[in-house]
Amino acid sequence: MTKQVEMFEFDEATTLAMKHATLKNHIDCINEKSRAEVEMNPGLWISTIRNDTDYWFDCGVTTPEEFDFQMDYEACYDMIADCTSKSFARSVLANCKTVKDLDEAYKKWVVS
Question: Which domain holds residue 49?
Fold first, then answer.
C-alpha cells in the first residue's frame, strides 16, 4: 500500500517568509548555544550574531548553509590574514566555493 502525499505550492511571498524564518531560527539556535556556553564558563565572552534576516539577505545569505559557509569563510579569512596578509588571504579564498575548499585553504596556510 502506498501513501499519497499532498504537495503544497506556496506563493513567492510565503516562500520568502519561510526562508527568512528558517534562517532566523538557525541563527537563534547558534546564539542560544553560545549563551549556554558562556553561562557554563564564567569569564568567557562570545558575541551574539545579528539575526536580522533582511541584513543577511542583503549580503546574499539566504539559507542556513550559505550562512554557515559565510561564517567559516570569515573565520578562515581572519586566520590566514593573521599568518600572511589581508590581501593574500583574499586571493587564497577567492576561488573557495565550498566548506571543503575553505578547509583545504586553512590546512595549507594556517596549519602547515
Answer: 9-60
